[in-house]
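If you are new to this repository, start here. Below is one unmodified record pulled from the training split, so you can see the exact layout before writing a loader.
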Amino acid sequence: MEPVRVGIREFREKLATYVLESDAPVAITRHGDTVGYFIPARRNRSDEERAALKEAAERLDALLASKGITEDELVADFKRWRADKRR
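And here is the target side for that same chain:
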């Protein structure tokens, strides 16, 4: 599912709408660059969705393990990349 892209101001102004009514992920942008994501929590995910999420998590864990990378290292690398991109 492709996320809806909205500017940070619009997201802030319509926060209640996104929180209460959105079913799709929202990519929050600032000056055209994605700065974050809002993933709405749904109380009733289908069995198919839960299975797909579990499979995606398992695949990510396996990929990280095969490369010898921890989650903390991945997050730190991403933060460095974002900081370099801002310069």
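Two things worth knowing about this chain: The chain has a mean pLDDT of 89. The chain has two domains: 1-42, 44-87.
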